[in-house]
Fold:
Amino acid sequence: MLTDTIHPTEGECFLNGVSTRRDRTTALAGAGVLIESPEIHPSLTPREALQMVADLRGVPGAEWRARIDTTLEEVRMSDWADQEVGRFSKGMKQRIHIAAALLHDPTVVLLDEPSSGLDPRGMAEVRSILRDLRRAHRLIFMSGHILSEVTDVCDEVALLDRGRLLFCDTLPNVIARFTPTQRAVDVTLARPLAGEALAGSIGRLPVVIAVRPRDARRLRRTSDGGIDDEERLLRALVGLDIGMAGFAAPESALEEVYLSQISRGE
Amino acid sequence: MSSASATVSERTAVPSAFRPPPSLPQIVKLARYQLREFLRTRRFVAMIGIVLAVGLILTAVTAHYRGGLVADPIAFYGTAWAAAVGYLIVLTAILFGGDAIAGEFQNKTGYFLMGLPVRRSTVYLGKYLAVYAAAATALLAYLALVVANGAYYFGVHAVPWQLGISVLLALLYLAAVVGVTFVFSSLFKTSAYGFVLTAVLLLFGFSLLQDYVSILVHGEPWMILTYAAGTVGSVFGGTVNWGWSGSWVLMHGEIEKNVVVKIYTVAGVAEGVAIMLGYVALTAAAGLWLFGREEFS
Structure:
């Protein structure tokens, strides 16, 4: 909606105080945008694609070369500047899109799931660039489902559940606010267990507030007890004789918060 | 995000150092890049190949049979240019325009453009101009072959003025056909629908409708684009109908026993121009409206 690619059922989006629906040209003039994993016409080279972007954004011709070279350097694509985009991997294309978003030195960079659809190498490349942008004090407004990436890049987070804003705060505040009383643990089982059995047996344990199967042998258990309750819970789980094989905190604290808030909403 | 402690809402946006150009220059710039892309594609090479093949067949047939074809310049240009150009127009328009808008959704290239400070109408019109220029290039290549043949048989100075009028009408017809193609391309997010519907409508559908309107309704099919396109060839006729109503023939009992039916065959030139301009305007309005509503989801 910030780029007017989908239309709101009601309300308006503003970028730098300008409605994107009423005047998307002015609204997007100061923004650099990357929407998921777009494609560039395959016969263009990165330099040509960025020339087009510069041309349409009103960057003076005299500045093109220096800006394009600098931006390609920033996304580590200088060596491929004059090769056709059609032969590139998704990760390489994504880096060019990031370069296109940065070319005019935007006041805000809008990233919509920037590593969506990339292979692990591509994801690593994009995340590395995002970390560099953060270090360079670029203002980034990013949406994403990969919460470890959000944790990596963002200082402030807003959590949406089915279009409803659950909260918006700095990342440390969010984690401090939610994690002391709600703790998630990933449990791995040696043998598959039916969902009903999980809800019945684990869900009845004290302080457990939610049990979510992740696959046939893995589940995420959320509790509102403190660290002392974890030992008792672990013993109780072992006592259930359900084939306990693993008991570990999730990798992302934000993911823990996310799941606890979603389960509350349900 | 900045490492500064201020929240997003507390930070003050700095105006961008660059102002995007107005819409018209952006349309031209976008068209230029899109045309450059077209000229590098295999489909452009294929189109030029088709044009060359048709031109070579024309050259071979003319050289072999001669006869009435090279009896006089008007007969030659009326046959060699006007008989083929209608099909070439439809073919080039479909080939370049069939996926011009739908392809932006299907191939996700639109997501790249939609991140730029350009209006949707700018994207639409820029692509329209590029498709038109690419298709016109192919047509002009065919025209060059026809004129080369004509010059061989009749000399360079024997090119009739009717050819100039016919070329202008053909270029107007091309604008209308590209417009129709863009409407279908805007209607669907899948390129194949645009290709097929435009081809069916322009190669068969309009002709059938034209006949139905004449035969069943006994009216002039002024709303049919291919009816107007007949002017591309009719200007080579002995008596050119420059007027605002079409030429017709009376059919005695051929359609219904003992009934005389007036069948309109081709629009008058002024009428044809008006119909084609109408199609350009209406398809532009419809296509822009459809593309403006479509969501990139």
About this structure: Residues 22-200+276-293 of chain B form one domain. DSSP finds twelve helices and two strands in chain B.
